[in-house]
Design a protein that fits this description.
single chain; mainly alpha; two-stranded antiparallel sheet; 3 helices; 2 strands
Length: 109
């Protein structure tokens, strides 16, 4: 806001100085560096937390997607079974036909 009226203001520490020398002394002070380090730590912490949150979110989406796909696959299997039920007798007859064919081939050779 009143940046021009407050040329020696440290935003980080919310401290106002009248003299450039005071301000410079503050910038070099332990207090200022401590606040700066704290803020950097907090920012790093919050960005890490954000990344972690995003990673978790992505994992959850992947899990949900996999679950949805699995359910869709199951539904497809059920739908196929309902739509085209294979009678047992048909399977047996097919197997018997195959057996006969094998026997004939065996005979001829
Ligand atoms: Zn400061």
């Amino acid at each position: 806001m009143a940046g021009i009226l407050r040329p020696f203001y440290c935003e980080l520490c919310a401290k106002q100085y009248k003299m450039a020398s005071e301000f410079e002394a503050h910038l070099g002070s332990y207090d200022h560096h401590h606040k700066k380090r704290l803020r950097e730590l907090r920012e790093a912490e919050s960005s890490r937390a954000k990344e972690e949150r995003q990673r978790r979110e992505q994992k959850r989406e992947e899990r949900e997607m996999a679950k949805a796909q699995e359910m869709a696959a199951q539904a497809a299997v059920v739908a196929a079974a309902v739509a085209a039920p294979t009678p047992r007798s048909e399977v047996i007859m097919e197997n018997q036909a195959r057996c006969r064919m094998l026997m004939i081939r065996h005979h001829n050779s």
